[in-house]
Specification:
The protein is mostly beta strands. The protein has three helices and 15 strands.
């Protein structure tokens, strides 16, 4: 019996909808302030270990005074969207190859780029009915800086203005391709200013270095999206036969 780590062999990849579709944010405001030079008053951030689309996530964006942390709906809603949200296509991910031209994302790509900080994310391998969940994080345990976009929209029911965001995904690097053919675009924290305000953001939309992530298998409990996401055991290494 052994726990799998970064060098573990993956099962045959399953071609799932664009990822990432689940991730974690167990972060501190102080840590994000140090990495991103945040402005504003510190606040307690509730740890979350199984974030699903259409729930609220923490997002770093450029505000009038500097980089600020703001809660947003995970699943971008363009300003022009008028139909009920349940008719909105899946917009929790945006493909790096088409993000500058797709009507859903092109306006935000031009002027509302953001960072979605993450402690890690999940992906699954194996056949239907026997999928194995894997957890991915930085080898040094620092937060990951996902390239993202944000947008304000009027809630179709209440007309209240709200904010929403999406994570940009691109082709997997060679290491990640053992698990999935896509991966989030992960930026160096030193490049987040260029991403949010630079003139050539497309130049940053490339796969991460091969050593950017570590991986291990976790409990199948993460497969459930109808329970609370405050359970830290979801990211613990599972003991697997080997």
């Amino acid at each position: 019996m052994k726990a799998q780590g970064r060098g573990a062999s993956a099962l045959a990849p399953v071609m799932l909808p664009p990822m990432c579709g689940r991730f974690t944010q167990h972060l501190s405001w102080e840590e994000l302030h140090r990495l991103a030079d945040l402005i504003g008053q510190p606040r307690n951030l509730a740890p979350r270990y199984n974030i699903a689309p259409m729930t609220q996530v923490e997002v770093i964006r450029l505000g009038p005074q500097g980089k600020e942390l703001a809660p947003m709906r995970w699943g971008l809603v363009p300003l022009w969207w008028k139909d009920p949200l349940n008719k909105l296509p899946a917009t929790f991910n945006a493909r790096a190859e088409t993000v500058s031209t797709k009507p859903m994302f092109r306006s935000a790509f031009k002027s509302r780029r953001c960072i979605i900080p993450a402690s890690g994310f999940y992906e699954w391998t194996g056949s239907k009915g026997a999928k194995t969940p894997h957890y991915f994080s930085a080898p040094d345990s620092r937060p990951l800086a996902f390239a993202g976009l944000w947008e304000s929209f009027a809630d179709p029911q209440t007309r209240e203005m709200k904010d929403s965001a999406t994570i940009i995904v691109g082709p997997a690097n060679e290491w990640m391709s053992r698990f999935h053919d896509r991966m989030p675009v992960i930026l160096d924290w030193g490049d987040i200013g260029l991403w949010m305000a630079g003139g050539d953001p497309g130049a940053l939309l490339h796969p991460s270095p091969e050593d950017a992530l570590q991986e291990w298998i976790v409990s199948a409990g993460v497969n459930k999206s109808d329970v609370g996401d405050d359970d830290p055991t979801l990211i613990e290494r599972a003991i697997v036969a080997g």
